[in-house]
Amino acid sequence: MIIQEVIDLIEDFAPLNYAEDFDNVGLLVGDSKTEVSGALITLDTLEATVEEAIAKNCNLIISFHPIIFSGLKKLTGKDYVQRTVLKAIKNDIAIYAIHTALDNQHKGVNDMICEKLGLKNRQVLIPRKDSIKKLTTFVPVKDADKVREALFSAGAGSIGNYDNCSFNITGKGSFKGNEESNPVVGEKGSVHFEEESQIGVTYSAHLESQILKNLFSSHPYEEVAYEIHSLENKNQHLGMGMIGELESEINEKEFLNQVKSTFHSGCIRHSKLLHKPIKKVAVLGGSGAFAINNARAAGADIFITADLKYHDFYKAEEKLVLADIGHYESEQFTKNLLYSFLSKKISSFALILADTNTNPIHYL
Question: pTM for the complete prediction?
Answer without folding.
Answer: 0.90
